[in-house]
UniProtKB/TrEMBL annotation:
This is Ribosomal RNA small subunit methyltransferase G. GO terms for cellular component: cytosol. It catalyses: guanosine(527) in 16S rRNA + S-adenosyl-L-methionine = N(7)-methylguanosine(527) in 16S rRNA + S-adenosyl-L-homocysteine. Its EC number is 2.1.1.170. It comes from Ramlibacter agri. It is an enzyme of class 2 (transferase). The gene is rsmG. It is found in: Cytoplasm.
Length: 226
């Protein structure tokens, strides 16, 4: 069958990102895009209305985080929380591309969590769940907690810290390297990598800020304090 221009663009982006996704996964990503478009007005999911923009700004942008995430988790099974997931970005994309992860998308807006539940059922994505709650109320433990267009780094780690496993990692999707936010991090979190991303067809700067819990304060002698 002939590929639609949209599928051709998605496949080119996937190749550019160095991802290896089966035809079935590509079909699910396209079906997910269709669902957002179909239900956007009802659920008020995103301000981006144009289908082409949605593909670039939402789908390919979220897909750019999949390779780095996989390198971090090494393809091992685990639990991932997407905070302030909205239409499911990047949570739904991660659930489709990483079936080894159990993905929960939390949002304070009931309609958005309901959309994720609907997407999980229509895409037959059994590793995906929509949660209607504030992230502050979740206990976890999650191995990875991610967010995109959510809050400052300080608020992100403070509000979700109780839900992150001791050895877990935070993955914050950001535009330009957020130096002000990095300087304002609370003592309980430390950055271990700021990873530049390049999103196919998008000129704007993108990065992932990787963080983990700072488990104990070190004294000047190098011994754990207290
Ligand atoms: C700007 S949207 C980003 C949506 C999506 N991540 C994206 O990249 O398109 C931020 C979302 O965070 C949700 N939100 C705000 N505070 C929250 C909290 N404390 N816990 C969970 N979700 C929250 C909002 O309802 C909103 O849907």
């Amino acid at each position: 069958m002939m590929q639609s221009p949209r599928e051709t663009r998605l496949r080119a982006g996937i190749q550019q990102l160095g991802l290896d996704l089966s035809d079935a996964r590509v079909a699910q990503l396209l079906a997910y895009l269709d669902l957002i478009q179909k239900w956007n007005k009802v659920y008020n999911l995103t301000a981006v209305r144009d289908p082409e923009e949605m593909l670039g700004q939402h789908l390919l942008d979220s897909l750019a985080a999949v390779g780095p995430l996989r390198r971090q988790t090494q393809g091992k099974p685990g639990r991932l929380l997407d905070v302030g997931s909205g239409a499911g970005l990047p949570g739904v994309v991660i659930a489709i591309c990483c079936p080894e992860l159990q993905v929960e998308c939390v949002d304070t807006v009931g309609k958005k969590a309901a959309f994720i539940q609907q997407a999980a059922s229509q895409l037959q994505q059994s590793n995906l769940k929509g949660v209607h709650d504030r992230v502050e109320n979740l206990a976890g433990p999650y191995d990875v907690i991610c967010s995109r267009a959510f809050a400052s780094l300080a608020d992100f780690v403070s509000w979700s810290g109780q839900a992150l496993a001791e050895q877990g990692v935070w993955l914050a999707m950001k535009g330009k390297r957020p130096d002000d936010e990095l300087a304002a991090l609370p003592a309980g979190a430390e950055v271990f990598h700021v990873e530049q991303l390049s999103v196919p067809g998008l000129a704007a700067e993108r990065c992932i800020v990787w963080l983990r819990k700072r488990l104990r304060a070190e004294s000047t002698t190098g011994q754990p304090a207290g």
